[in-house]
Amino acid sequence: MTLESIEKLRESLKDCISETGIEPNRFDTYWITAKACDMLIDEIEREVLERYMELPLDEDGIPIHEGDLIQFVNKQGGTGAPVEVCAVSKYYVYYNEGKHFYRADCCCHFKPRTIEDVLQEMLCEETLINSQYPWENPELIAKYAAEICELLEIHNERR
Fold first, then answer.
1. Domain check: are 20 and 47 in the same one?
2. Could you list the residue range(s) of the whole structural domain that residue 86 is in?
3. What pLDDT score does 18 carry?
4. CB within 8 Å of 152: residues ≥ 6 apart
5. Exposed, middle or buried, 56 (CB in 10 Å: 0-12/13-18/19+)?
6. How confident is the model at residue 30 (pLDDT cuts 50, 70, 90)?
7. pLDDT score at 105
8. Which of 59, 154, 64 minimizes the C-alpha distance to 108?
């Protein structure tokens, strides 16, 4: 989609072209007054303000778009289940076909756990709790192996 004011700027500039230089290095130069340029810029700015809306920002100041995965963050630091954004307004994000909404600044972008996250947590948990080597704790291995399998299934479903 092209802004009408941008097209008008292009047309106006065509009228201001002057050929300068010496053959074969001839080039086109725009000759336009500051007042004319300011009027065209004002028109572009007016059209942008009329047609476009600022995106809502999450708690970290990151813009939220339709299709993003976000989660609610409560004051105690907990987070809600991830939801997919289906619509946005300046301060709110909507999900579940627009039936529910959150204030954008009370949300954060959802970052799915990675296999690296799981392995790092496993090593930290084993070291802090039992001071054993992880491979000597079959319950710990089973717990994190199940999560890794789940992550792999999710990854394969997305392909």
1. yes
2. 54-111
3. 58
4. 115
5. buried
6. low
7. 94
8. 59
